[in-house]
Amino acid sequence: MGACSKDSSDSASTGVGGDGMSWTVDGKTETAVFTTGGLISLGNLPLLTVVGKLTNGSGGTMTTLNMGRGVGTYPLAASATTGYSAAYTVSAGENYIASGGSATLTTYAPSATAGESHVVGTFTFTGTDPNGTGTKTVTNGKFDIKF
Protein backbone atom coordinates (compact mmCIF):
# COMPACT_ATOMS: atom_id res chain seq x y z
CA MET A 1 0.00 0.00 0.00
CA GLY A 2 1.06 3.59 -0.54
CA ALA A 3 1.59 6.30 1.99
CA CYS A 4 -1.18 8.43 3.45
CA SER A 5 -1.31 12.14 2.77
CA LYS A 6 -3.44 14.49 4.84
CA ASP A 7 -5.29 17.40 3.24
CA SER A 8 -6.56 19.18 6.37
CA SER A 9 -5.67 20.44 9.82
CA ASP A 10 -6.51 19.09 13.27
CA SER A 11 -9.35 20.55 15.33
CA ALA A 12 -10.27 20.35 19.00
CA SER A 13 -13.51 18.70 20.03
CA THR A 14 -16.19 20.36 22.11
CA GLY A 15 -18.53 17.36 22.35
CA VAL A 16 -20.73 15.21 20.14
CA GLY A 17 -23.59 17.14 18.61
CA GLY A 18 -21.39 20.15 17.86
CA ASP A 19 -17.93 18.94 16.99
CA GLY A 20 -17.20 15.59 18.57
CA MET A 21 -17.18 11.83 18.62
CA SER A 22 -18.31 9.14 21.07
CA TRP A 23 -18.67 5.35 21.18
CA THR A 24 -19.30 2.47 23.56
CA VAL A 25 -16.61 -0.19 23.92
CA ASP A 26 -17.50 -3.41 25.73
CA GLY A 27 -20.38 -1.59 27.47
CA LYS A 28 -18.44 1.54 28.56
CA THR A 29 -19.26 4.87 26.87
CA GLU A 30 -16.26 6.96 25.83
CA THR A 31 -16.32 10.54 24.53
CA ALA A 32 -13.41 12.01 22.62
CA VAL A 33 -11.81 15.19 23.94
CA PHE A 34 -9.95 15.67 20.66
CA THR A 35 -11.19 14.97 17.14
CA THR A 36 -9.86 15.44 13.66
CA GLY A 37 -10.87 14.53 10.15
CA GLY A 38 -9.22 14.68 6.80
CA LEU A 39 -9.28 13.69 3.18
CA ILE A 40 -6.43 11.24 2.64
CA SER A 41 -5.15 9.03 -0.11
CA LEU A 42 -4.03 5.49 0.59
CA GLY A 43 -2.12 4.72 -2.57
CA ASN A 44 -4.67 5.67 -5.23
CA LEU A 45 -7.69 5.21 -2.91
CA PRO A 46 -9.37 8.51 -1.89
CA LEU A 47 -10.64 8.21 1.70
CA LEU A 48 -12.20 10.21 4.51
CA THR A 49 -10.52 9.59 7.86
CA VAL A 50 -12.07 10.45 11.23
CA VAL A 51 -10.21 10.17 14.56
CA GLY A 52 -11.43 10.61 18.13
CA LYS A 53 -9.01 10.57 21.07
CA LEU A 54 -9.72 10.40 24.80
CA THR A 55 -6.70 12.65 25.56
CA ASN A 56 -4.92 15.57 23.93
CA GLY A 57 -1.37 15.11 22.71
CA SER A 58 0.39 12.00 21.47
CA GLY A 59 -0.56 8.47 22.52
CA GLY A 60 -3.68 7.53 24.41
CA THR A 61 -6.85 5.67 23.55
CA MET A 62 -8.41 6.52 20.20
CA THR A 63 -10.81 5.31 17.54
CA THR A 64 -9.88 5.72 13.87
CA LEU A 65 -12.21 5.26 10.89
CA ASN A 66 -11.35 5.24 7.17
CA MET A 67 -14.30 5.29 4.77
CA GLY A 68 -15.39 6.51 1.37
CA ARG A 69 -15.83 10.15 0.46
CA GLY A 70 -19.59 10.42 0.14
CA VAL A 71 -22.88 9.76 1.92
CA GLY A 72 -23.40 6.01 2.31
CA THR A 73 -22.61 2.92 4.38
CA TYR A 74 -19.12 1.43 4.30
CA PRO A 75 -17.92 -1.97 5.58
CA LEU A 76 -15.20 -1.66 8.22
CA ALA A 77 -13.10 -4.76 7.73
CA ALA A 78 -9.54 -3.94 6.69
CA SER A 79 -9.38 -4.13 2.90
CA ALA A 80 -6.52 -3.40 0.54
CA THR A 81 -9.09 -3.08 -2.27
CA THR A 82 -11.21 -0.31 -0.71
CA GLY A 83 -9.03 1.05 2.11
CA TYR A 84 -12.08 1.07 4.42
CA SER A 85 -11.05 0.19 7.96
CA ALA A 86 -11.40 0.98 11.65
CA ALA A 87 -9.29 0.56 14.74
CA TYR A 88 -9.70 0.99 18.48
CA THR A 89 -6.24 1.72 19.90
CA VAL A 90 -5.53 1.53 23.63
CA SER A 91 -1.73 1.79 23.38
CA ALA A 92 1.06 1.12 20.88
CA GLY A 93 0.96 -2.56 21.80
CA GLU A 94 -2.82 -2.94 22.07
CA ASN A 95 -4.63 -2.19 18.83
CA TYR A 96 -7.98 -3.73 17.81
CA ILE A 97 -8.45 -3.81 14.03
CA ALA A 98 -11.99 -4.07 12.66
CA SER A 99 -12.85 -7.55 11.45
CA GLY A 100 -16.48 -6.60 10.79
CA GLY A 101 -18.88 -3.72 11.18
CA SER A 102 -19.82 -0.58 9.28
CA ALA A 103 -19.75 3.21 9.20
CA THR A 104 -22.62 5.27 7.83
CA LEU A 105 -21.83 8.75 6.60
CA THR A 106 -25.01 10.88 6.66
CA THR A 107 -23.44 14.29 5.97
CA TYR A 108 -20.43 14.83 3.73
CA ALA A 109 -19.68 18.49 3.03
CA PRO A 110 -16.03 18.97 2.00
CA SER A 111 -14.59 22.47 1.72
CA ALA A 112 -11.32 23.89 0.44
CA THR A 113 -11.35 26.23 3.46
CA ALA A 114 -9.70 24.82 6.60
CA GLY A 115 -12.23 24.22 9.38
CA GLU A 116 -15.22 24.33 7.01
CA SER A 117 -15.47 20.65 5.99
CA HIS A 118 -18.25 18.89 7.91
CA VAL A 119 -18.99 15.17 8.33
CA VAL A 120 -21.66 13.41 10.40
CA GLY A 121 -22.20 9.69 10.84
CA THR A 122 -22.42 6.56 12.94
CA PHE A 123 -20.31 3.41 13.31
CA THR A 124 -20.06 0.00 14.93
CA PHE A 125 -17.40 -2.68 14.65
CA THR A 126 -15.71 -5.64 16.29
CA GLY A 127 -11.95 -5.28 16.53
CA THR A 128 -9.40 -8.06 16.94
CA ASP A 129 -5.91 -7.49 18.35
CA PRO A 130 -3.37 -9.10 16.01
CA ASN A 131 -1.14 -9.73 19.07
CA GLY A 132 -3.72 -12.18 20.40
CA THR A 133 -5.03 -10.18 23.38
CA GLY A 134 -8.66 -10.64 22.32
CA THR A 135 -11.42 -8.55 20.84
CA LYS A 136 -13.26 -5.31 21.57
CA THR A 137 -16.81 -4.52 20.48
CA VAL A 138 -17.39 -0.88 19.56
CA THR A 139 -21.07 0.15 19.34
CA ASN A 140 -23.22 3.31 19.41
CA GLY A 141 -20.46 5.22 17.62
CA LYS A 142 -21.28 8.68 16.36
CA PHE A 143 -19.34 11.64 15.04
CA ASP A 144 -20.13 15.21 14.06
CA ILE A 145 -16.85 16.82 13.07
CA LYS A 146 -15.65 19.95 11.31
CA PHE A 147 -12.11 20.02 9.98
Structural class, judged by helices and strands? Answer: mainly beta
Contiguous runs where pLDDT drops below 50 for at least 5 residues: 1-16
Query: Mind describing the biggest β-sheet?
Result: 12 strands, antiparallel
Share of helix among residues? under 10%
Average pLDDT: 86
Q: Report Rg.
A: 14 Å
Report the portion of residues in β strands: over 45%
Large-scale geometry: globular
Number of strands: 12
SSE series = EEEEEEEEEEEE
Question: Total number of helical segments?
Answer: 0
What is the terminal-to-terminal distance?
A: 25 Å
Kindly describe this structure.
- The protein has about 150 residues and is mainly β.
- The chain is built from no helices and twelve strands.
- Strands 1, 2, 3, 4, 5, 6, 7, 8, 9, 10, 11 and 12 form a twelve-stranded antiparallel β-sheet that branches.
- The two termini are about 25 Å apart.
- Mean pLDDT is about 85; it is low at about 1-15.
Quickly describe the structure:
It comes from Hymenobacter ruricola. The protein has 147 residues and is an all-beta fold.
State the main characteristics.
disordered N terminus, Lipoprotein, 147 residues, single chain, mainly beta, 0% helix, 12-stranded antiparallel sheet
Write the layout of secondary structure elements.
Layout: E1 4-6, E2 11-12, E3 20-25, E4 28-31, E5 34-42, E6 45-53, E7 62-67, E8 72-77, E9 85-91, E10 94-109, E11 118-128, E12 135-146
Antiparallel strand pairs: 1-5, 2-5, 3-4, 3-12, 5-6, 6-7, 7-9, 8-10, 9-10, 10-11, 11-12
